[in-house]
Amino acid sequence: MTTARITKSEADDDSTLVAQIERMLDLAPHIGVDRDAMAVVARRLLAREAERADLPPSRRRQELDTLIAEDIETLCLAFVRLRRVVERMPNA
Predict the structure, then answer these.
(1) Backbone φ, ψ for residue 51 (5° rounding)
(2) Are the C-beta atoms of 31 and 77 separated by less than 8 Å?
(3) Is 70 exposed, middle or buried (0-12, 13-18, 19+ CB in 10 A)?
(4) What is the mean pLDDT of residues 37-63?
(5) pTM attached to this predicted model
(6) Residues contacting 34, CB < 8 A, separation 6+
(7) What CA–CA distance (Å, rounded) separates 88 from 23?
(8) Which residue, 30, 33, 55, 70, has fewest beta-carbon neighbours within 10 Å?
(9) Residue pLDDT, tens place only, 53-87
(10) Is pLDDT larger for residue 7 or for residue 16?
(11) Which of 4, 42, 46 is nearest to 25 (CA)?
(12) Who contacts 82 (Cβ-Cβ below 8 Å, separation ≥6)?
């Protein structure tokens, strides 16, 4: 088994990203973003992706593709909104 080595720079990048995401999620309720709703969309997205994985090309697969794209867009819009707020905030 081969293990990938994580450089200090990569670890710093990861910890910075985690801190940014945690800050965004902490602020979510204060700017009108419902974290619980985001979690529901994320779980629904995972379920739809799992269902789609085993389907041959079909009408249902096309429907799932559309629904998956909508869920991704919903989550992206929420994170973009959160990121904008965090970027405008002074560093604490």
Answers:
(1) -65, -40
(2) no
(3) middle
(4) 95
(5) 0.71
(6) 28
(7) 13
(8) 30
(9) 989 999 999 999 999 999 999 999 998 888 888 78
(10) 16
(11) 42
(12) 24, 25, 27, 28, 31, 33
